[in-house]
């Protein structure tokens, strides 16, 4: 039995992984085709993208006869490019709006909450899955400054949910379903980046609130199967999982740590800046753009295309631009003269513009009503910035090759590799926006294979994390959770100094342990939507006896008429009689604990139980009563209750004062308290005018820059 | 204040990391010198090892004039080699026995328990640290089939403990200390393998029972600082962290999955076999060899040296042998004709012998009374086995190059790379013995940089894990914990179907809330060693009021005489008076929760509190009384209580029946119950004779092989 169960959970995780891999391969193929369509077409067949059109032809950059740009004139090409961008974004936004609203956005925040125990009906349904998979290629191809990683996680979780629903063990158990969702989120990152271990770490560091070795193992299986399937389908025909393989021949030097620190600071500031102003934009969007999601997306795509065309790093695909920026200059790594000393200042300008422009575009685009992630845009921004710094350091070295700073450089070898700075910049920006560390190291490392750069990556992320902590930034996913008001307990522990009795709901509906009839229970169910009822003794003292879930009540009321004679007057019993004592309860409200004879009851078993207990004409609910709900005393500090929720994962905690039920608390109650009592209401938009925002952008940037300059001065003086 | 605290924890983790890095560099240098001393000496200076002796001389394998083997005759060299091995092992075992007994063994099991909350006085002290660091190079150089990774983790934790003890915030808080120990264990693995991220994952997957992002981050900082320090000290003078860098130019083919499955099965069987019989040896050792630890170690080293000399893969250092086995044949990867087709069957024999011999040596050596790890020996065994399989597959390919199985191979390129199988075999064996998965992938990958082999590694580990689960193997660290009877709750959840009342201690010592005098408390402290006292109301009803730690009682009794007049007759109070109501309690027994005004109280603050509350002549203990200890009802299922211990981490849970204290339960009580009630006593040695063991080895091997053959047949037939 145990082996079979374990086998089933492996099988489900593996099957979900395979489906995720297949879906990811399809998305990749369509995305590549649509992206190239903006630039030109293939005369051998309209369904071929540029790569396949020019297959087996050497020097595929320009010298392929079958591939035709739309026009020889750049202005016409520019217009066609913009038109395609608008059409793609219109189609995507329209599909999302009219069929599956949940397909919009990244989805990571919502899935975090779902894994934490929140339910959002339909968020992981087939409609969402289908529309998000369909529109994701359109959005990426439209050139909007958004990525495919967040949506890829969401799509993966939809697949995980749909696959697991086919198995009764999962469809009936929320806890098991959450485990599969965690595993699917790992697979989602794994296929988006071709980084299976990065995916597993992502699921640990970002998604799951309760860590367990079992869940980690399931994530491993799911990510492995997804990556293996993707690799077997080989959508890029390169046979590589690694998106932008780079091999840095040279080692890093200790003097470069100064540059690593600069990159780290950039990452931290970038994260703080984007999180802050993206929230402003989100508030603006909610207030003024709520009814124009399609126009907004089209407008954004058009602006991005019109403006982006003129910058060589924004015009091309973000992943392509990253792979160019990461490369070493030796061995064909040049693109558009990026390696030429004569062009260096033009390049610095161009990279600087790309960085600033892309930051602006990300701030306004992330969160618009199409599938949109923020991983890749952040990395692209970091890469342009890093490469810019790299070119500047290289210029410095060329100008003063004999300076003591460069003493370790040997004259005959290249000392500075700007590509590595681009790589580190990408890591810093990704870490800055998501507040992830270990995951980012592993992802960067699986993306590129740049093994010798593990230590520099870690140093950069150390600085990024320090800057982020100093500025008090949260990850964008957490900020979005807060912005949207989802019930999710954050991880950082604050001290509130209040007893749980101040937070609990006092006015609760209970059921007496005996004396109710079927009619009364139906009435109570009809009169309220709450998810469960504490059961108290019928003698009026209010002694707590147990707790029953609404779903179980409903289930028994629906099933019982098939096995016994039930009339609205049939009495109900929530406590076992003397003769029933040896029956254990089926219900314990803590994920991961099996208690009683038949937990994970599927329909057949529960029918059987109903039959055995359906003796004379009393409807017995007691096997479904959780007779040991988690109870605490009213004076227990709120912090302990929060930890109980986070670490034990119950849906409800009852408050018992001298054996008498005095209240009940759920995660929502705790959150309501922490939001209303502790922090003043946050409303980022707040009726401010546009100039106000511009001024704030300036003040923020200036203020942070100033603080850092003073800090550095302080260090120098000491 | 918050920023300063965060800063301090970064600083402590970083400082510990630096010390760990320095220590690791010293250990590496001494180990290399001692290892070479067995083979010969340097005429330029006795303190030079072979590498430095032959520095700047090309072709360092044989053509270095300053390096002299001990004698031209192989027999003399053999004897000198053996003598050195015995002397090294004698010195190490003697030092361990006479100065620091805790320095023996691996230490991972014990540290796991310490991080889980168990206290072992002196296990992380300076003596242990010093002797373990001193003897580790001797043991490795003696050629015993043991590794340095387990001891390296232990040494790192000693350093973490010593460094953190300098800061009062850590020395007074067990919870904080455990966090630093977790971080140090990450650094220990990081420096042993040069794998910082592997270290962080090790600390998550193996060491910590409660995962938190904060602890993970501290591990990251500590591992980074340790690795960076090691890299700056550059003990190998190679400038590389990567121990055996390999670059596999060629990609893997799907038909190789068959071989990956074989390697995975080997890993699983190897783990099960070694765990089982190493426990037998441990039982034998405890029973018969308890008083001869030094002779045992010397005997083992002598046997290893005498026998190992004749096998080319056992004679040399394990890490060296692995780096030879991992290499591709092209580009100078040949060693002792390992790549020659003519020698292939000799090599297979030699590798097979090395595998079998090393398995035997590991089984008898791991656990002997010197510092000894099992990571590297396992990897070495996996590598010899994998290379053997690789040579066989290559021979198969050479014999039938046109078989359909090899259809994807191109004729002009090498199709089979035996080195990759060695690499995968090493991963499988490591995962089989430790039951780690994600950690092993990352470590292997950081060790070698073989990025294209992530998917194959994951496939191999999937099979290894499946075989291990099928055979019901536990990791060797967990088995050792069970064997030694340490209090540690394992992670797998079993169902016991008993209420906590069957497990609790009923006969407990309590303190009445009032009416006691200082003399009474001194008496009670003297009469018992228990760690804390529940406090019950003084009116005889036994109502639970709170809980106080022994350490806090002691602390107040010691400090109070300095600030107020205390006589043995001074009355004591454990409950606040009316006027004190606004004072919160200082104590909550859950790690990671700050409650009340001054948790993490250091001496100064608590003196201050004593002063403020030392009004008229009553000694007030109440600020130290935890007035909200975790309490549960007697009928709560044992599983829930186990989860409370595991996830919330309290030291004690009180059982309250209708407000009256009825018992108390600790982790030890739970373990005592699970051991005595559930599983029959396990005593692996059991008076059996030697032939019995040999027979059992045979039966086990045959039985497992048979089961697998049937399983495979079943698959083929279907």
Automatic annotation (TrEMBL), chains A, B:
Keywords: CBS domain, Chloride, Ion transport, Membrane, Transmembrane, Transmembrane helix, Transport. Coiled coil: none annotated. GO terms for biological process: intracellular copper ion homeostasis; intracellular iron ion homeostasis. Its main location: membrane. It is found in: Membrane. Residues 504-566, 625-681 form the CBS domain. The chain crosses the membrane at residues 12-34, 78-99, 180-204, 216-233, 254-277, 297-314, 347-366, 372-397, 421-445, 451-472. The keyword Transmembrane applies. Pfam families: CBS, Voltage_CLC. InterPro entries: CBS_dom (IPR000644), CBS_dom_sf (IPR046342), Cl-channel_core (IPR014743), ClC (IPR001807). GO terms for cellular component: early endosome; endoplasmic reticulum; fungal-type vacuole; Golgi apparatus; plasma membrane. GO terms for molecular function: voltage-gated chloride channel activity. PROSITE patterns: CBS (PS51371). It is a multi-pass membrane protein. PANTHER family: ANION_PROTON EXCHANGE TRANSPORTER GEF1, CHLORIDE CHANNEL PROTEIN. Belongs to the chloride channel (TC 2.A.49) family. This is Chloride channel protein. It comes from Wolfiporia cocos (strain MD-104) (Brown rot fungus).
């Amino acid at each position: 039995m145990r082996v079979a169960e374990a086998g089933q959970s492996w099988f489900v995780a593996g099957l979900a992984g395979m489906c995720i891999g297949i879906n990811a391969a399809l998305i990749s193929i369509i995305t590549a085709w649509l992206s190239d369509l903006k630039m030109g077409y293939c005369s051998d067949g309209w369904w071929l993208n540029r790569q396949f059109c020019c297959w087996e032809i050497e020097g595929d950059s320009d010298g392929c006869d079958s591939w035709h740009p739309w026009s020889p004139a750049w202005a016409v090409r520019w217009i066609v490019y913009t038109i395609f961008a608008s059409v793609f974004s219109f189609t995507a936004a329209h599909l999302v709006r009219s069929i599956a609203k949940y397909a919009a956005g990244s989805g990571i925040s919502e899935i975090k909450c779902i894994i934490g125990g929140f339910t959002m009906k339909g968020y992981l349904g087939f409609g969402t899955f289908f529309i998000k998979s369909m529109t994701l290629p359109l959005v990426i191809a439209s050139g909007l400054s958004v990525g495919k990683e967040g949506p890829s996680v969401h799509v993966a979780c939809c697949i995980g949910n749909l696959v697991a629903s086919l198995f009764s063990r999962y469809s009936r158990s929320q806890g098991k379903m959450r485990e599969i969702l965690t595993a699917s989120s790992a697979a989602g990152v794994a296929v988006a980046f071709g980084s299976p271990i990065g995916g597993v770490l992502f699921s640990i560091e970002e998604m799951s609130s309760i860590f367990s070795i079992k869940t980690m193992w399931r994530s491993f299986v799911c990510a492995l199967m997804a990556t293996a399937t993707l690799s077997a389908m080989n959508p890029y025909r390169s046979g590589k999982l690694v998106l932008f393989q780079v091999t840095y021949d040279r080692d890093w030097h200790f003097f470069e740590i100064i540059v690593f620190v600069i990159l780290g600071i950039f990452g931290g500031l970038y994260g703080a800046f984007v999180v802050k102003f993206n929230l402003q934009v989100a508030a603006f969007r909610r207030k003024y753009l709520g009814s124009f999601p399609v126009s907004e997306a089209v407008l954004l795509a058009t602006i991005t295309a019109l403006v982006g065309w003129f910058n060589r790093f924004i015009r091309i695909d973000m992943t392509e631009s990253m792979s160019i920026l990461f490369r070493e200059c030796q061995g064909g790594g040049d693109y558009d003269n990026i390696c030429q000393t004569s062009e260096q200042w033009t390049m610095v300008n161009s990279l600087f513009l790309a960085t600033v422009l892309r930051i602006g575009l990300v701030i306004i685009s992330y969160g618009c009503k199409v599938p949109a992630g923020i991983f890749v845009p952040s990395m692209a921004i970091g890469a342009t910035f890093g490469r810019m710094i790299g070119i500047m350091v290289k210029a410095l070295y060329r100008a003063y090759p004999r300076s003591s700073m460069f003493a370790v450089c040997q004259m005959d070898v290249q000392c500075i590799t700007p590509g590595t700075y681009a790589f580190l910049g990408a890591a810093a920006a990704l870490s800055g926006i998501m507040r992830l560390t270990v995951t980012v190291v592993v992802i960067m490392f699986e993306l590129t294979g740049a093994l010798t750069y593990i230590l520099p990556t870690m140093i950069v992320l150390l600085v990024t994390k320090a800057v982020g902590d100093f500025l008090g930034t949260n990850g964008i996913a957490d900020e979005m959770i807060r912005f949207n008001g989802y019930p999710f307990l954050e991880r950082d522990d604050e001290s509130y100094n209040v007893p749980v009795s101040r937070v609990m709901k006092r006015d609760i509906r209970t059921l007496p342990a005996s004396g109710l009839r079927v009619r009364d229970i139906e009435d109570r169910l009809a009169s309220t939507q709450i998810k469960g009822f504490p059961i108290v003794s019928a003698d009026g003292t209010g002694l707590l006896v147990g707790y029953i879930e609404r779903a179980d009540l409903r289930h028994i009321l629906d099933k019982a008429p098939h096995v016994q004679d039930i009339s609205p007057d049939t009495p109900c019993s929530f406590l076992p009689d003397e003769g029933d004592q040896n029956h254990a309860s089926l219900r314990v409200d803590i994920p991961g604990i099996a208690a009683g004879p038949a937990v994970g009851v599927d329909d057949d078993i529960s029918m059987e139980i109903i039959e055995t207990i359906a003796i004379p004409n009393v409807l017995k609910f007691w096997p479904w009563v959780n007779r040991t709900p988690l109870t605490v005393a009213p004076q227990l500090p709120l912090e302990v209750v929060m930890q109980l929720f986070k670490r034990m994962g119950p849906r409800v905690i009852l408050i018992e004062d001298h054996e008498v039920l005095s209240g009940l608390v759920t995660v929502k109650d705790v959150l309501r308290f922490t939001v209303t009592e502790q922090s003043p209401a946050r409303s980022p938009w707040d009726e401010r005018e546009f100039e106000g925002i511009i001024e704030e952008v300036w003040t923020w940037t200036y203020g942070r820059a100033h603080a850092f300059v003073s800090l550095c001065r302080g260090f120098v003086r000491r």
